[in-house]
Amino acid sequence: SAVISQKPSRDICQRGTSLTIQCQVDSQVTMMFWYRQQPGQSLTLIATANQGSEATYESGFVIDKFPISRPNLTFSTLTVSNMSPEDSSIYLCSAGMGGGAGNQPQHFGDGTRLSIL
Amino acid sequence: QKEVEQNSGPLSVPEGAIASLNCTYSDRGSQSFFWYRQYSGKSPELIMFIYSNGDKEDGRFTAQLNKASQYVSLLIRDSQPSDSATYLCAVNPGGFKTIFGAGTRLFVKA
User: How far apart are CA B107 and CA B19, in angstroms?
Assistant: First the structure.
């Protein structure tokens, strides 16, 4: 399976600031995904990032708040903008293996634990 | 709304027993099914995937799929305390997105 590196692993930020999370995959993948996971909750998909096109956002998530870049087939970033305490969560990136076909499993980075003061 | 349902647990089993984790899904056209294990404070780790009706075995793990009943399960034989974690059922209903269940917490008592 692919190795997915995510950084930072954790951060404590002041409200109103922005943080960019980086995700690097050790092989080329078509689709990358960004999730949020609140403590004790399951994964909530924020957006799907396909190289060469705009990210596709899920209901409740907007580009102005969570801008995503996908400059190549191995890298993506998620920015959490104008942060508030409600944004405190674990943010996870994942990549769909097997060329990004939906029937292939996703593998996850180690996550970014974000706390907003 | 496409859904994946799991009992939140906790499911408690003694060491050495079989743990049975269950999942139902709403989209009858779903073709791909996955089980992830998530330890506290860690990210999800893929442990099994299954595409066809029936059983698929990998070591102590067996995934079972019944598309007619829209039901997928995970059996863990000879459960160990190290198996204590949250198990996420995930379903791909078509396209690139995967729908995750809320997870079942498993506790294996030594």
Answer: 9
- CB interface of B with A, residues 51-80, below 8 Å: 51
What pLDDT is attached to residue A105?
85
How many other C-beta atoms are found inside a 10 Å radius of the C-beta of residue A36? 19
- Per-residue pLDDT reduced to its tens digit, A27-73: 998 889 999 999 888 899 999 998 888 899 999 999 999 999 999 99
Cβ pair B104, B97 in contact under 8 A: no
Sign of CA dihedral B15, B70, A58, A99: positive
Q: Does B8 touch chain A (CB under 8 A)?
A: no
Residue A87, SS3?
A: helix
Alpha helix ranges (H) inside chain B: none
Question: How close B14 gets to chain A, by Cα (Å)?
Answer: 23
